[in-house]
Amino acid sequence: MAGYLQPGSQPGRTKAITIPSLIALRNTGEKIAVLTCYDASFASLMDRCGVEVLLVGDSLGMVCQGHASTLPVSVADIAYHTASVARGNQTALLVADMPFGAYATPEAAFNNAVQLIQAGAHMVKLEGGAWLVETVRFLTERAVPVCAHLGLTPQSVHQLGGYKVQGKTTEDAEQLKADALALQAAGASMLVLEAIPATLAKSVTEALAIPTIGIGAGPDCSGQVLVMHDLLGVFPGRKARFVKNFMDGQTNIDGAVRAYVAAVKDKSFPAAEHCF
């Protein structure tokens, strides 16, 4: 099966990263390194540099297609890039974003998730809280692993009024934590927490048994994710607080990715200046 080669097939990591192995990392306290990825060449590079999870993010709409948001991205776009990443990947877990409008109903979510799984994804990611519980359960009962996403959910940018930190009030924090527990109970295997106070991310992480992956959510999540272009300092947009350019001090991209993985693992990233 593509992405699941026998031990010894790749220099460095010799076994495929799976959902149980991510949970094992979470349970031992070893941080999980995640990066967005959009093509075969970078997939191969990230895989050999020790990145555990590759995310084909709908961020491709902004960094690859030049849109102002993620909203124009289609299922076909994600499937194309997922297939490309799958061809270059050998052992990392491959997660594909479900784009805006792709999971309005459980049935629609399943039909679209099937396309992404058939393209090579091992898991799909959906943005939203308790309203997605039925959909998450519907997918996982049909053998589609799910990564949930709470906090700043870019597909809701118009409803949120922009890219703003979420969960700042007591009421909002309690709702986010309740949503996280409900999504876990429905079968979600992983949870992305984006742009929330570090103290809230710590509380949510401690309350769950599944890995949490932070982006602008502080150092206490089970792992961290960055958009590849932000990590390399090549995206011309406004730099978010949680972004660090890992090309600084490096002579090549391989070194930057390895520096990122090392910083996540030794807990030096994110530092205080990257947190809310």
Describe this structure as you would to a colleague.
With 276 residues, this protein is an alpha/beta fold. The protein has helices at 19-28, 40-48, 60-63, 75-88, 106-119, 133-140, 157-160, 170-186, 198-207, 228-232, 253-265, and strands at 32-36, 53-56, 93-97, 123-127, 146-151, 190-194, 212-215, 223-226. Helix 6 runs parallel beside helix 8 and helix 8 (170-186) runs parallel beside helix 9 (198-207). The longest helix is centred in the middle third of the chain and has 17 residues, at 170-186. It is globular and about 45 Å long.
> What is the string of SSEs from the N terminus onward?
HEHEHHEHEHEHHEHEEHH
Shape: globular
Radius of gyration: 17 Å
Estimate what percentage of residues fall within beta strands. Answer: 5-15%
Measured as a percent range, the helix fraction is 25-40%
Regions with little confidence, pLDDT below 50 for 5+ residues: 1-11
Distinctive features:
eight-stranded parallel barrel, globular, disordered N terminus, single chain, 276 residues, alpha/beta
How is this structure best summarized?
The chain is of the alpha/beta class and 276 residues long. It contains eleven helices and eight strands.
Chart the SSEs and their pairings.
Layout: H1 19-28, E1 32-36, H2 40-48, E2 53-56, H3 60-63, H4 75-88, E3 93-97, H5 106-119, E4 123-127, H6 133-140, E5 146-151, H7 157-160, H8 170-186, E6 190-194, H9 198-207, E7 212-215, E8 223-226, H10 228-232, H11 253-265
Parallel strand pairs: 1-2, 1-8, 2-3, 3-4, 4-5, 5-6, 6-7, 7-8
Helix pairs in contact: 2-4, 4-5, 5-6, 6-8, 8-9
